Amino acid sequence: MDLVPALQEPLKKVLGPATAKVMAEHLGLHTVGDLLHHYPRRYEERGQLTHLADLPMDEHVTVVAQVADARLHTFASSRAPRGKGQRLEVTITDGSGRLQLVFFNAGVHKPHKELLPGTRAMFAGKVSVFNRRLQLNHPAYELLRGDSEETVEAWAGALIPIYPATAKLESWKIGKAVQTVLPSAQEAVDPLPDSLRAGRGLVSLPEALLKIHRPQTKADIADARSRLKWDEAFVLQVALARRRHADAQLPAVARRPRPDGILAAFDDRLPFTLTEGQQKVSKEIFADLATEHPMHRLLQGEVGSGKTLVALRAMLAVVDAGGQAAMLAPTEVLAQQHHRSVTEMMGELAEGGMLGGAEDATKVVLLTGSMGAAARRKALLDLATGEAGIVIGTHALIEDKVQFHDLGLVVVDEQHRFGVEQRDALRGKGKQPPHLLVMTATPIPRTVAMTVFGDLETSVLDQLPAGRSPIASHVVPAADKPHFLARAWERVREEVANGHQAYVVCPRIGDEELDPKKAGKSAEDDAEKRPPLAVLDVAEQLARGPLEGLKVEVLHGRMHPDDKDAVMRRFAAGETDVLVATTVIEVGVNVPNATAMVIMDADRFGVSQLHQLRGRVGRGSAPGLCLLVTEMPEASAARQRLNAVASTLDGFELSRIDLEQRREGDVLGQAQSGARSSLRVLAVIEDEEIIAEAREEAAKVVAADPELERLPGLRTALDALLDEEREQYLEKG
Prior knowledge:
Blueprint: H1 5-8, H2 11-15, H3 17-27, H4 32-36, E1 42-45, E2 60-75, E3 85-93, E4 98-104, H5 109-114, E5 120-130, E6 133-137, E7 140-143, H6 149-154, E8 159-162, H7 171-181, H8 194-200, H9 205-213, H10 218-249, H11 262-269, H12 276-289, E9 296-301, H13 307-320, E10 324-328, H14 332-346, E11 363-367, H15 373-385, E12 388-393, E13 407-413, H16 420-427, E14 435-440, H17 446-452, E15 457-461, E16 471-477, H18 482-497, E17 501-505, H19 516-519, H20 535-544, E18 552-555, H21 561-572, E19 578-581, E20 594-599, H22 607-614, E21 624-630, H23 637-647, H24 651-661, H25 664-671, H26 688-704, H27 712-721, H28 724-732
Parallel strand pairs: 4-6, 9-14, 9-15, 10-12, 10-13, 11-12, 13-14, 16-21, 17-19, 17-20, 18-19, 20-21
Antiparallel strand pairs: 1-8, 2-3, 2-5, 3-4, 5-6, 5-7
Helix pairs in contact: 9-10, 10-26, 10-27, 11-13, 12-13
């Protein structure tokens, strides 16, 4: 690791302990290299002012503007009863809008002397509203004079970089720190192979770092960004390619179904034919299972496309070959649901060792944390002896006590809820690494799948089985048009009158402590400020009001597991008309008779979550209805998000919209075991081509030189990307 001593230098040696501490705690920056890779978010032009008109509320912003006027007021307060309190109000402008800065008491002296009309400066602070006007309270500021040597030096570039900053460290202070370490950029070792760089006309890494932090022109910024995007895409793809390469070297037991075994018997029992998509995906999975190194496959499909059936056929193939299969679900409700639907689909084939069980039958056991001791002992024994071919469970499957006779396949449902450590612990229970099938109902655009799950082969189910009904979705603007909400409850009553059932989903349970600062606000506060609607309150209001006379029940995550199961059973049996629930029903709950869903405070949910929830209705032959209730104003981003969800049922399209609105960091963060996203300039949707090309290049490089012995710069970059946490993540996957 002596290759980049200058970039490994701790910041506290270079910048001093105080600044280094803030950088480490608030920005996660520890070394000179970390700081050089903390890129500007945007650039201000000296001759052009920022748009004050577009300031986001409650965010920490940096603006460049000119002082229009400054006024000092005195006032009386509890601290200064004799009218000795002082308040300085400074109005700044940038041509697009005006913004007020406010300083109080002892804090007024310096700005009163410095912020004179006509002065230009950079201001940083948190945007708030007072008397319906935007303001910054006690903002930090840096004058843009250019009379002292240091300022001239610091702002020499025509473009002023604005860095991702925090309240403790303003953008210009980060800029000054970057200037201090910038000479070290010359020693950055280039991770890209020369041939790749030359072939694509990319600038060298030292030059890219210099241009991104001190651009002279916009072309400099473009050069630097296209180079740095390649770095991020390529280094990440090399990490994934090395992992695929290493996995291909691992031994695994090939599992081939018998022509007359349990899988064939199961297929004969199916009352319908598989869709083309299900047949194609099953073929891919069976081909993987038949090889002697572990399958690593991601199965993604629309809500209701029949992923569980595909996974069950894979599990039966492994049972046929003498192995066992484990299915890991994120919640007890979901594990119980899967267990119920799998045993129903299998019928007597799930009654191995019992009277009336079929000849090829196996046992299907459930293992969850809340099971009684006796049932748990019996399940553990069935797994250890091999009596049970299939086990479905929650995290309880991962515990040390759980021993398998011969674990051949692990199916993980809803990947994004499982840490990598848990997947690894379960895989460690096989005598040899078991095959792995990861399922997700959140459709992931291809590039995201390549970036996040690039080590997994991907199968996509995008056909819905015959007989599934379309779902109509509408936004209900409760604040603008209260009669729309009244009509929503009438629609629920109509569905129930026609013999169907409905869900009402709320963001909160209602028995948790609320932040008193927020709870005591007046009713005039906007929808953002009031607490989210709660299951317990809404259920009571509905039962006493618009849904009086209907059988209303509640379901949420803090109920006792037995109570949850009882509520779900009553709902599935049609004994309950309306289920008021939190997102515990988001995945896997299957009640074909439920045709309507009303989502309260729909703006509090993410796009993919709304899509998941909506997939709980329209699962039978009657058409589904999903109503998205919100109090957000029409022009808000939240309303646009809801309109997008209402306008399409295509989950892949929605996941693209979702990604464009959020940052990839959220997506990568979830998948990469909470490690902070390594993507700073690469946008997975925008830069699809770079990611695809980088994947091909990475595969070639790793095939030719798996240990990267001929590319020391690339090794160094990988070591930096794969700090310990990530290294473990990639090994475990």
